[in-house]
Amino acid sequence: MKVVRAGILGFCMGVRRAVEIAERASLETGRVVGKRGLVCLKENDISSLPADSTVIIRAHGVSPVIESELSN
Known about the structure:
Blueprint: H1 13-29, H2 64-71
């Protein structure tokens, strides 16, 4: 089998769009954390979020319990 690597590599359209939305949300809140102004949050860190935080949920969603915790 011959494997040919594409000349241009990158995100698919859906992932590219999601990253752009996340970056835009980061800029709108005025908070810059991490390389692109975003940080991954672990479930056990939810309680430490400031009340006015913006949270982006992954495309696969989260459990109703986590969603409820984020809403409060």
